[in-house]
Design goal:
75% helix; mainly alpha; 14 helices; two-stranded antiparallel sheet
């Protein structure tokens, strides 16, 4: 029992949880509006999207890579789904399914380009961000697609027992990802690849296949988040997901997922996303200009990456000292 308690106390998730609790208490004391039901619902609804994409991004980070196209995949999938259910008159739920499958396909394209052409994941997905964003603009001509059927609005705006439906989807996504990571061979392979791709390959792991599967999962989750955001807004816009790549990286790193791969827990990404959402909510409650949210997100990303890098350097220094 004592060993279990010590393990919990020394886990990164425990530390992040403590930070989150302190942040929530401090915000509650400073602002009497923070714990109101209306504000908490708004906070959790915003958290759902950052958290969902953060959990997805944690998978790419676990193999030591990044997907910076998550926002554009979300936006393009949302736009295509909106066109299918408005201009083409397709059943809304069938349109949602097609939009999600499109996200899966775009993730497959990302993974295939990266693995077959041996490209750097960050550079490749930056390029694909331009491709998907360009296609989006060609399709929409920069205009929002409105008249989204009322019957799907509840997916973005509704609640079940007071919990926003998008957040319920986020918890389902997290549950599935945790099952894959900790209860399947694929999960073990993901950590093996993140620790050492070459060693994993020598052990018989189909490294490229696993990497492509990860990008497909990320694309699927991005599309789901995109279509839920369309249901929330009641319209599809090219601006959906603009800050999601940066926030998803920050969420994962704050949550203890190492940029170098092989270390971390996807659940930490949701905790990291919660910290970011609380900070952004504080900005609104304290009457700070809303545009500062982007600046704060950037600061959080840089700070999180810096702390991660410093911790890694200290660890390497200690290890190096022991080896000597």
């Amino acid at each position: 029992m004592k060993t279990l308690i010590n393990k919990i106390r020394h886990s990164s998730l425990f530390t992040i949880s403590i930070v989150l609790v302190i942040l929530v208490i401090a915000t509650s004391i400073i602002s009497p509006y923070f714990l109101t039901p209306y504000n908490l619902q708004a906070l959790i609804r915003d958290l759902a999207f950052i958290g969902m994409i953060g959990v997805a991004q944690s998978l790419t980070l676990l193999v030591g890579e990044l997907d910076l196209s998550v926002g554009k995949i979300a936006s393009l999938s949302g736009v295509v789904g909106a066109i299918l259910m408005t201009s083409m008159g397709l059943n809304p739920y069938l349109s949602i399914l097609i939009a999600i499958l499109l996200g899966t396909f775009l993730g497959f394209v990302n993974g295939t380009i990266i693995t077959k052409l041996k490209l750097n994941a960050m550079v490749a997905t930056i390029g694909m961000t331009g491709v998907y964003g360009g296609i989006n603009l060609v399709i929409t001509k920069g205009k929002a697609i409105s008249n989204i059927p009322q019957q799907i609005h509840f997916l973005g705006k509704g609640n079940i027992l007071g919990i926003p439906i998008p957040f319920i989807f986020t918890l389902i996504v997290l549950g599935i990802i945790l099952f894959i990571v900790f209860k399947t061979k694929t999960g073990r392979y993901i950590y093996a690849i993140g620790n050492n791709k070459e060693a994993a390959d020598l052990l018989g792991v189909n490294v490229d296949k696993i990497r492509v599967q990860i990008y497909m999962i990320v694309g699927t989750i991005s599309a789901l988040a995109g279509i839920l955001y369309v249901a929330r807004l009641g319209s599809a816009q090219t601006a959906i997901g603009e800050n999601w790549p940066m926030n998803s990286i920050a969420s994962s790193v704050i949550g203890g997922v190492a940029l170098t791969g092989g270390i971390g827990n996807p659940a930490g990404a949701l905790l990291g996303a919660t910290i970011i959402s609380v900070i952004q909510n504080m900005i609104v409650l304290f009457g700070v200009n809303i545009y500062w949210q982007t600046a704060v997100s950037g600061i959080v990303v840089v700070a999180a990456i810096s702390f991660s890098s410093i911790a890694l350097m200290r660890k390497n220094k200690i290890t190096g000292g022991k080896e000597k």
